[in-house]
Amino acid sequence: MNIGAPLKIFHESKGTIVTIEVKTGETYRGRMVETEDNMNCQLRDVTITAKDGSQSRTEYIFIRGNQVRFVVLPEMFKNSPCLKSSELKKHVQAKKPKKNNKKPALVQSSK
């Protein structure tokens, strides 16, 4: 199975500080330790912000991938090679000429 550019960047975020919002409205900000293809992830030195704005800290947390609403990654990932290659593929596909399904006209040779 081939993973797309968003998941590749998600995996590249290991070791960086990320913010993750889950479906319950809580946000978790900490250092990404581990990631999986199903978006399960583990964070260290985490600040948890509840819906009401109250904050707490924990050393370690595991977030289940199907609970993730969105992930905020460091700005350095906007220049990721993963995005460049996928943009390049789109650009190349857009420039490809469309095939003409018309049959070629018969050419007669003059002798």
TrEMBL record:
Q: What PROSITE patterns is this protein classified in?
A: SM
Task: Please state every residue range assigned to the domain named Sm.
Answer: 5-77
Where are the residues of the annotated region Disordered? 88-111
Sorted alphabetically, the Gene Ontology BP terms of this entry are: spliceosomal snRNP assembly
Which keywords does this chain's UniProt record carry? Cytoplasm, mRNA processing, mRNA splicing, Nucleus, Ribonucleoprotein
Q: Which family does it belong to?
A: Belongs to the snRNP core protein family.
Q: What is this protein called?
A: Small nuclear ribonucleoprotein Sm D3
Instruction: Say which domain of life the source belongs to.
Output: Eukaryota
Q: Where is the composition biased (Basic residues)?
A: 91-102
Q: Which InterPro entries match?
A: LSm4/Sm_D1/D3, LSM_dom_sf, Sm, Sm_dom_euk/arc, SmD3
Q: Which GO terms describe its molecular function?
A: RNA binding
Subcellular location per the Swiss-Prot or TrEMBL entry: Cytoplasm, Cytosol; Nucleus
What is the species listed in this Swiss-Prot or TrEMBL entry? Answer: Entamoeba dispar (strain ATCC PRA-260 / SAW760)
* Keyword Nucleus attributed: yes
- Listed GO cellular component terms? cytosol; spliceosomal complex
Say yes or no: keyword Zinc present: no
